[in-house]
Design brief:
The chain is an alpha+beta fold. It has 8 helices and 11 strands.
Length: 287
């Protein structure tokens, strides 16, 4: 049947209405009842996009979620970064990978089994992120120990440009950790949200999000072991409602982020609903 222009217009309008209805239903289901978690995050955990000019004509503004995977214990050195993409945590071992449904049997003595393990398809999981907990404290301690170790090496090799450079870099890493580093760390994975929430009941400190894990063999102390790579986190950005953008304008105008010029501090209360999707409840700029 040939569609007339009127029928085409009507079909287009109905399609738009249907899409909006589906989206609104998703929002309603996500925000029904009490939030699954509610965290107060700072400029450490929330990044402002660099290409957003703060103009009224710009139709969208979203804050990036900065999360981290601690790897210092396995690498023997300090790592102070954060992640939008993923990482290989020390705690994601053979037992946890087996609990996620990966076949971990027979890998140690057979190359073919190891290859099959590494080529296994990623699995959808639930990732637990902890705010300002022991993982963050350990990262601070690693940074301090790393800086102290390199400073001692510099003093013992006063004429070496290499040791001077390493000590300076380690000190810069420490300063970034103390002032800028995200406090939101991946600490666990699972498949059952009820079980994870029972294990981590504090909804103001522990955040549960959807993610993916793919199998990976890692080297720890020159020994190969089973591990996993966490990626595909379900929340990468948090939209800022138009009415709350004015509060962030001072931050948008001054996006400089260095330990000596960390920019304007802010805190945002972020709620995560029943579908583990976030929304911004409030923003407070300044100390």
């Amino acid at each position: 049947m040939r569609l007339t222009p009127l029928r085409t217009l009507v079909a287009g309008v109905l399609l738009i209405l249907l899409a909006n209805a589906v989206a609104l239903t998703g929002v309603y289901l996500n925000r029904s009842g009490d939030p699954e978690s509610r965290l107060v995050l700072s400029q450490r955990e929330l990044s402002v996009p660099w290409d957003w000019r703060g103009s009224k004509e710009n139709s969208g503004l979203a804050l990036g979620l900065n999360w981290r995977v601690g790897t210092a214990e396995s690498s023997g050195d300090y790592y102070g970064g954060y992640s939008f993409s993923g990482g290989t945590p020390d705690w994601l071992d053979e037992a946890r990978m087996a609990a996620l449904g990966f076949d971990t049997t027979g890998w140690a003595n057979d190359k073919g089994t190891r290859r099959r393990f590494e080529r296994s398809l990623p699995r959808d999981v639930l990732l637990v992120l902890e705010l300002a907990g022991p993982s963050w404290q350990r990262s601070l301690e690693w940074a301090r120990e790393n800086a102290a170790r390199h400073e001692a090496a510099r003093l013992a090799n006063a004429d070496s440009k290499e040791f001077i450079s390493k000590a300076r870099f380690a000190q810069e890493q420490l300063e970034r950790e103390e002032v800028l580093g995200s406090r939101l760390f991946a600490i666990d994975v699972g498949l059952d949200r009820v079980a994870l929430r029972a294990k981590y009941p504090d909804r103001s400190r522990f955040l549960i999000l959807k993610a993916t894990v793919r199998p990976q063999l890692v080297t720890v102390d020159k020994q190969r072991r089973i591990g996993g790579y966490v990626s595909g986190i379900g929340v990468r950005q948090i939209n800022v409602p138009f009415g709350q953008r004015p509060a962030l304008e001072p931050v948008l105008r001054n996006r400089q982020r260095t330990p000596k010029e960390p920019g304007i501090p802010f805190e945002a209360t972020i709620a995560f609903g029943q579908r583990l999707e976030p929304w911004l409840e409030s923003v407070r700029v300044g100390r």
